[in-house]
Structures are given as C-alpha cells and as structure tokens.
Amino acid sequence: MPFTEEARKLKQKRTTIKANLTRFCKYLDSCDSFSDSFELNVRLENANKWLEEFDLYQGKLEELSSVDDRDQDANELEREQFERSFYSAIAKAKSILNSITNSTTNQPIPQAFSVSSNPLANVKLPPLDLPQFDGDSTKWLQFHDAFETQQLKFIPGSKVLLFTLQLKGRSIAKCTVSSD
C-alpha cells in the first residue's frame, strides 16, 4: 500500500473521530435537563474511547510523516486541537452531570411529600379493643389466647408494651420488663 493511500485512510478515520467529537459538543450545548442526564452518561462513556482511537491513528500518521517537518507540525497542531476540544468537552459533560445531580438533590421536597420526623404524629387509628388481665390465674389462658388471636403486626418491642398496658391490679405489680 503506498504511503499516500495509507495516510489518506488514517486521516479519514481521524476525521470520523473528530466529527463524533463535534456532534458530542453540539449535544452538550443543548443538554440541560434531568432526562438528558441518562443519555449524557451513555454518550460520555462512548466519548472516552475517542481519545485512544485518535491517538492510535494520529500516531500512525506521525510515523508516516516523520521525514517531512511540515507534516509533523500539522500533525502536532492537529493533536493539540483535538486534545483541547476533547478535554474541554469531557469537562463540560461532567460539569453538566454534576449540576444536574446537585440540582435534583438540593430541590426542596414539596410539603405533600415531606416526611415528618415523627411518623406517628398525624396518624389517627381506631382504638384497639384488647382484653384485660387482672392477675387471676384461672383467666390467664383466656386472656393470652384473646391477646394472641388479634393477629396484629406489631413493631418489635411494642407488643410487650401493649401487653403490659392490658395488665391491671396486682398482675402489673408482679410484671417486670427487661430488654431480653
């Protein structure tokens, strides 16, 4: 393959990569919304390989033109311009992603969707009609069965509290609650 044909093909591949970068830069100028952030992430991942490809083709061109100083200067200028544009575009893309991320995390939550620090503060539940136990051992089994058959899903630890609230008289005096 003659030198000029190989150089022409390498320049064509290099031009394709530069065109990709130009389209990416144009996209960045129009990108600013949250929905674009997903597409921008995909485009950014794709753009990261362009520098390697450009470097490969540009390096081969520089090897071919090592005898001609004018070609070397032109190739060096081409490399500098591409790298400047590439790094500028990547920095701009990351800045846009960062600003989109920050703007979505710093937006105030509408009052209708805000979470109270006390989740039970505004909840009004119907009263529970639980059986009471007065300490009479003959009534224990009936109380226990009635309490257990309520089939309520309690927050861990609240079942013990609810149980002790249902005790009356001398049965409460005998009851000790521990963390075990």
Please tell me about this protein's structure.
- This protein is mainly α.
- The chain is 64% helix and 0% strand.
- Helix 1 runs antiparallel to helix 3, helix 1 runs parallel beside helix 4 and helix 2 packs antiparallel against helix 4.
- The mean pLDDT is 76.
Based on DSSP secondary structure assignment, what is the total number of beta strands?
0
Binned strand content: under 5%
Separation of termini? 85 Å
Whole-angstrom Rg: 37 Å
Largest sheet: none
Shape: rod-shaped
Helix segment tally:
7
Order of helices and strands: HHHHHHH
Please bin the fraction of helical residues: 55-70%
Arithmetic mean pLDDT:
76
Query: Which class best fits the helix and strand makeup?
Result: mainly alpha
Q: List segments where confidence is low: pLDDT < 50 over at least 5 consecutive residues.
A: none
Q: What is this structure's SSE topology?
A:
Elements (H helix, E strand, L loop, with lengths): L2 H28 L3 H14 L2 H15 L4 H37 L34 H9 L9 H8 L4 H5 L6
Outline of this structure?
With 180 residues, this protein is an all-alpha fold. It has helices at residues 3-30, 34-47, 50-64, 69-105, 140-148, 158-165, 170-174. It starts with a helix and ends in a 6-residue tail after the last helix.
Notable features of this structure?
180 residues; 7 helices; mainly alpha
